[in-house]
């Protein structure tokens, strides 16, 4: 609460925020979600390609949200955002990667195979 | 709606109906009457003494981190008591119900013991959730709230209003789970929930909904808090408080809140998906339609294991502050300590799978997670050795706080070693879901409770200006330890004897004797609760005799002991300049402990606000409305919340300024007040000498005004 701090409106992260970028982020994320929903509910693709496609959609949505909504990028003016991004990558690999590995091993042992998955019969 | 709820539903009241109030239940109905009477008495008393204005102005609308912290701690203690009563009921049920045959109390409708399985299930579910998220977490957040800004020389948290919001949202969660006692019922599928039994088809009541929304609220409150803590430590440190001078407790708060910030969203997502299943009819965790039961378990523990470290790391931090103060030595291996803290935090992210080895994902995955789990033992071991080395050749004072800290170390040892056993998949297959696991994590969680009691005794004089009664603190410690021993060691035995967890009817007569021992332990715990209450009463009654100066213990080390006790609302009259890692000890040893600021400057403080209370109340309404599916109420409360938030954001808080002259006056009064309370005390310490530390670089003849703990008055 120290007094006479610079105007918060002038902070770089506030400066970066604009109505346009929030709207773009929101629209892109919504469209991707809509696309995924239509693909799944209409069963447009075979199960395994479907899985890959909606994962792709999710990945793109995540990137759009990080960039447009959270304004996290690798530019210099905002060191803490870069730190947050660097934190994010290992956590992403750990949570998604290890979960994937775990489930693939589990499915090998317990589940009927998803049709169309390569390397399985 | 998208799903058909079984049973009646009306647009106005949702699923709520008079029949949902269990007024025929022989336990709940009298309890309800007692609580209502107590509530009326409390309200009447506050009205009679005209304290509403005071409470509203000084407490409910405050944004002062110390007062918010105190309220967090009170909330946590109340819930600790509620959780304890749940524990008492479970222990009594198992003691009564053990053995074959028909030993139930027919009057209560029970076939075994005195509780029906349905009721027993709700008790253990509520117990777990309450103890971990509504007792331990608020206690720790409360202590961090009070101490972290003081330790870094800040005037408040980075976002004082957000801080209040976190408290009131947590309070909303508490109210939600408490009201589930009397309106409807609570979930019965354990504190972490099992798929698919929490699906609407198998749990048609409102219990699971209460569980979802209570967890969602407390997760929201804690996430907001963690953002605030991180911003505070990053941005608000006093000049000279470099990262390498940060007190260990603050370091542990940083690491814990990184964990909280990154893991609580996982919980929120997992529960939102459960909510989608129950409210929208999706199939994330159902057995059919593409759902995946194990995905829930995976997502839950993805948060669940980091969460257990979120609660233990601040406890480690507290131990790291208490032990040096009562060993009269700086902490041994500061850098190693900080690195170990972050190593634990890092590893906590890659071990969650050890909670479901038995799921069957095969040797490769199990091996990885087994090894990762065991890795946690290395930094934990580093910490334990550091604490031991701190005590080695120190000048030990076995004050009540120190006893609690040392007790915590013993529990950590037992909990950690049994954890190591559990992390071996081969062993885990034998004891998973037995009460051996329950005993393991109770050792760990009690380690936290010990550290919290130690911290409360240690920092109480800083916040309130007088010490708690030492003798009763020690009596409570020994009673509590006896209770712990009697309840949880038999539990390890029972685990080896094959008792699975959560049995409303333990059928094997061989277990009976251990249940009896545990029941005795519970009685001893009850005595320790009484000792606690008596300690509080005696300490407040005799507070005039236990007033303290800035450095309450005479041997304290970190920055918070430089400011007056009780801490004035502005924390430091002038923001201190930090010269060393243990600033208070450094100033004492260099003869600066009596020095005061030579000039004052105007300071800027935030205003009180009622907005946080309103939003907290509204989140409670949202949770209640969602639980009972009263859509109009939920939507109305949600819209109102958003409107209030927009209003508050637009208005902002200009805060207010205290001029330099006024600061000087306030500082003089605070000093005066503190030294008035000191008149009766001899100057200089008691038998510890209180000042000259065995390891001080330059002992000074400046005597601080602390009293050594041994000097407190005898039992009364
Ligand atoms: C040395 C560190 C630790 C190790 C190696 C360890 C290991 C384990 C393992 C392997 C389990 C799974 C047992 C099973 O369900 O079969 C477990 C359960 C548990 N541990 Fe730990 N643990 C450690 C520290 C902690 C700490 C610090 C806490 C909390 C403060 C904690 C709380 C819990 C809880 C709550 C559960 C069980 C939750 C449940 O099933 O309801 N553990 N631990
Ligand atoms: Cu774990």
3D structure, described in words:
The complex is a heterodimer of chains A (121) and B (716). Chain A is mostly helical and 121 residues long. Chain A has two domains: 8-70; 74-110. Helices cover 69% and strands 0% of the residues of chain A. Chain A is built from four helices and no strands. Chain A has helices at 12-16, 19-41, 47-69, 79-110. Chain A is flat, with a radius of gyration of 20 Å. Chain B is an all-alpha fold and 716 residues long. Chain B has two domains: 51-546, Cytochrome c oxidase-like, subunit I domain (Cytochrome C Oxidase, Chain A, Up-down Bundle); 559-609 and 630-711, no CATH class. Chain B has 20 helices and two strands. Chain B has helices at 28-48, 52-60, 65-97, 117-151, 160-179, 207-235, 248-280, 293-327, 334-347, 362-375, 377-391, 400-422, 425-431, 435-464, 470-496, 512-541, 583-589, 611-628, 631-651, 660-676, and strands spanning 603-605, 656-658. A two-stranded antiparallel sheet of chain B has the order 1-2. In chain B, helix 6 runs antiparallel to helix 7 (248-280), helix 8 runs antiparallel to helix 12 and helix 8 packs across helix 14 (435-464). Mean pLDDT of chain B is 90; it is low at 682-716. Chain A binds chain B through residues 1-3, 80, 87, 91, 94-95, 98-99, 101-103, 105-106, 108-110, and chain B through 155-156, 160, 234, 258, 262, 266, 294-295, 298, 302, 349-350, 353, 359-362, 364-365, 575, 602-606, 655, 657. Protoporphyrin IX containing FE (HEM) binds next to helix 8, helix 11, helix 12 and helix 14 of chain B. Protoporphyrin IX containing FE is lined by residues 192, 308, 311-312, 354-355, 373, 376-377, 380, 416, 419-420, 422-423, 428, 432, 437, 440-441, 444-445, 448 of chain B. Chain A: Keywords: Membrane, Transmembrane, Transmembrane helix. Chain A: The chain crosses the membrane at residues 21-42, 48-70, 82-103.
